[in-house]
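Both lines are given unchanged directly below:

***
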Amino acid sequence: MAPSAGPSARRSTTASAERLLNLLIALLDRESGYTREQLRGIVPGYDRAGNQDAFERMFERDKAHLRSLGYPVEEIPDDDPWASDAQLTPRYRVPRGSYRLPRVRFSAEESAVLAVAADAWNDAAQDRLARRALDKLEPALSGEAAPGRDLQPTVAVADPAFEPLLSAVLAHRTVRFDYVDRTGAFSQRTVQPWGVGSRYGAWYLAGWDTDRRAQRTFRLSRIISEVETTRETFEPPRDFSMGGQLARMVSQPPQLCVVVHVRQGAGQLLRRIAAPSDSPAWRAPEGYDAVQLAVHDTESAAEHVCAAGPDARVPREPVPGIRGDAAQGGSAPTAEGGPSAEPDSTSDDAPTAEDIATQNAVADAVARRLRDARAFQARMPGVDVRWGKQRRHGAAKASTEQHLARLLHIVRHVYAHQGAELEETARHFGITDAELVNDLQTLFVCGRPGHMPDQLIDASWDDGHIYLGNAQELSEPVRLTVPEASALLMGLQTLQAVPGGDSRVVRSAMQKVATAADALPLADALAAPDADAAAEPRDSALVTRLRDAIKNGRRVRLQYLVASRDEVTERHVDPVRMIFSDGQQYVRGWCLQANAPRTFRTDRIVGCEDAGEAEVHPRMESEVRSSIQPAKRRPVQAVVVTDRRGRWIVEHYHAKRFVEVSVPPAPGETEESDAAPRESNSQPIPGSRARAARGPRPLPEYVAAEVDFPTLDALSSLVTRHAGHVGVVSPPEAVAAVEQWLNSSCPEPTPGRP
């Protein structure tokens, strides 16, 4: 989390917001508009620009700010009939009425779902846009009491490419980026982005690949450079639907099955996605259980096994004496790699040659991943982490826009509620009384060019009641911008995907939101996260029982798998809300064991029983927003290093801070040959040193991030699961735990195998 702004920063933001408000009033004041030089002379604040270049940069930023808030700043020809062609300069204005909100009205039910949708984003930038959209729609919302909320969708994004790609989709701008496909092959792409959406827990971009002259779909987590947005525009196909595009990504049934030996009493998360195995060919040794894991490919199986660390092993060869067609004919390889001798007795349960090949392939993949993880971790002692000044990209812009947006919202709100109590108004905006007074004082010194007393905004609040005047143009409801509408629409789409929601009401609200932005085709470019998973929950009976418990005020007794501790615990919970986020469903409620609110993933609930009547818990009732974000206090604070493929960790784990670092080459490699991260069994990804002068700017090759984890095992599992892309540099106890985990996870080498 970025540090809060100090007094000087707040003064600077207030001054910028005051200048922007005066500029907006000037642009609204005269239909014929003003030239740049005229605006420089009449708008307070421009006098602080030291020279012409500084003023030009400030003016361009200010125009962008106003446009982002929904005010279309126009450039029109100079109307001076006596000026020569050389003397003609453009004039600027905001046409009256061009920004006004279309006539829309939301019912009580629609207003309620809009409030839920605006509360859905875990991404700060999109959350800000969604809430700003809801503020603009305030005059059109119903004043009736909203229905109760027992559903909460949540939209989370951990990909750095999401924000620029979404902006490019909405602006119809061509983009460039570097991409690594699932095979590890590197390429530079130029794409006309048509839409973004989520499927099966991952975010995707669909569009036209201009180099390959074909439609393509890209997974955002595989973009390894910054997204370069060009000035080239395009028109997307009228019949394109991102939802339809993602719907064609059919979830394929598992293609192979592998037997895994799991240590007794451990590997609970792996057991949750596997089934017991009764095959005598892969009988587990003492102290282990045999489970069968159905997966799509070898690498998926290896990833699950690696995540379990020392608690899971993949047997290579069947139990001696149980042979199948692998031995028939004497041509199948033995464990030593040579041809088999005379065939042993066969059995109906004997494995086939394909079964043995699958086991060996997965075991090889596990061994390779673990070697990669151990090799990358061995390079961590040479990493020097030096934290510099932390500043979030675009923080200043967001702060200025937020303040100006709040000032305009105050004007609209007070005009609609003249005489409103100051304290009540401050609570409405979520600010202190003092902050509201400061905003009113800012409004009081703003007005039309000339800034004579009768030209300033009339603001009074001396008696504890607020009155505003002389700001009629600013009080008009403002239409939604396309980014604002898209943030609200995606929240609505996610709510629509949650079982139990009123889809009719949501669809109606979506139509009106698109109308409010004058962008009816907008929804076609967006696709809500994992509507597919919501339509077919993993355990519909369990979800139904939980929904009924919430509706009827019943307590439940849960058998719950705590993945970070690898154990199943019993919890008594008074549930209050269902949450849907990134393809997962959660239940939010009061946990009696913790005596605090807790959130539980439904796919980790092993058992659920009625436990009597639930109680009312004031702390739960006062919750404004359900959250599935990590707990604020976590026992393990570690500094991890990731390459470009692991950069998502910075966002996903809400890193406190991060910085670019250098990682020494592996033994036998030079700095030049190790200029970029490697993919297993692939060529090196080109680094910045070998790049052309033009093209997307690559992400830092390596980043160190300060991240909190619930346990050392959870940290170690992350390193092993994402083998070769994540390492740990501090604290020493975390490094030691990870290295011990890796060393104990690595299987003994098999004779004849690398």
Observations:
- Residues 367 and 691 are 33 Å apart (CA to CA).
- The radius of gyration is 30 Å.
- The mean pLDDT is 80.
